[in-house]
Amino acid sequence: MGTASHLINQTTDRLMRYIIDNNLQAGSKLPTELELSLLLQVGRSTIREAVKALVGRNILEVRQGSGTFLVREQIGIIEDPFGLAFIKNKKKLIFDLLEVRMAIEPRIAAIAATVASDDDITVIKKLAEETENTINNNGDYTQKDTELHAKIAQTSGNLVIPILLPIIQRAQRTIIVLSRPLQEVNKQETIKFHRLIVEAIEKHDPVGAADAMVLHIAYARNFIRCYFNEIGEIP
Amino acid sequence: MGTASHLINQTTDRLMRYIIDNNLQAGSKLPTELELSLLLQVGRSTIREAVKALVGRNILEVRQGSGTFLVREQIGIIEDPFGLAFIKNKKKLIFDLLEVRMAIEPRIAAIAATVASDDDITVIKKLAEETENTINNNGDYTQKDTELHAKIAQTSGNLVIPILLPIIQRAQRTIIVLSRPLQEVNKQETIKFHRLIVEAIEKHDPVGAADAMVLHIAYARNFIRCYFNEIGEIP
Lengths: 235, 235
Hints:
The structure is a homodimer.
Chain A: H1 3-21, H2 33-40, H3 44-56, E1 60-63, E2 67-70, H4 90-115, H5 118-136, H6 142-155, H7 161-176, H8 180-183, H9 187-202, H10 206-231
Antiparallel strand pairs in A: 1-2
Helix pairs in contact in A: 1-3, 2-3, 4-6, 4-7, 4-9, 4-10, 5-6, 5-9, 6-7, 9-10
């Protein structure tokens, strides 16, 4: 790691700064490599490496023949930014992921219940219904479930948690897919607790929403705990 | 985004899987590009792009002339994985970052107080002392402060929060450095509350540790709130 890699890191930061300062929107095309090289006063190969670094973070996308673009949605979100794949003890990891959710989601559900607009409630109800339908059709409901929890987080107005929560839920999913029985984790209870959460938000009842969220997460965690006690390990 | 980029993403995932399955440790050297190309049955240019993607996520490091290595510490941690730099409303962002900390850190401090070993307590006390000394010498104490909070999180045994918390604290710092007065945020109070937290952990008093952490975060947030009420904006 010499000066070259230091220059690349610095250029990556300056390129980020350029994107932010120029208020580039998702889908925008970036200046060419040559233009960026003149703009930031570094060589084209340095620009190329900086662009690659931002492609690696899902911030930029290079479309062959058309140029470099700011990615469309979920800017900067990479699949496993915490490197959780490197954690060996998946059994402990799933409890610790649920501990993060237990700390965050009841508070967030309470705020969402307080401030939810009619439009928010419509979307929340639709996502809960779609999750239910997918469960009842024996489909993989984790995507819809993640969207529902993310929408509740987004309704709360917090800027960080709607980004954080899907990362946690995706990590949880990658563990759960390892095990068939865990996939069956409290499907009917999920429907029941989702309904409770949605009803409380609709009634603008913060304590009810927080309680329902605690029940939802505690029930899931307890199901997993009982299962591990029986079988000892993730099969 | 055509098949080429799909193949690169897939190869990136397989390369991660290779690292995990072969139990490569931080600092380990990876096989050469040619070897990886034979191993994963894809072209060398695809391997090169996959390596670049993992370099962009701070998982790999290419050392000119010596090869590709797994990075030494804080595997996979990138500076701003949530893309928080893209959030325009820095004033709201700092409150929302502190809300995440308020949800997580008191619970974590309580667990740390319950389970801390004598060695953990020694390290926690040392970090608190170093933070104090840096504050008293008018230095930038945010690094030591982040280490202290991360050590408390690590003591709790949770696998996710010691990774998450420094990301939140670094984001908070990048906002605070924009403003001179915010840098003065409750320095003496920080010393006072850190001492309270450390004392409670040392006494294995979970409720005391949680209370002290609530006080610490609430005080900081209230300081920032009063400051914004006065000046209206981040200067």
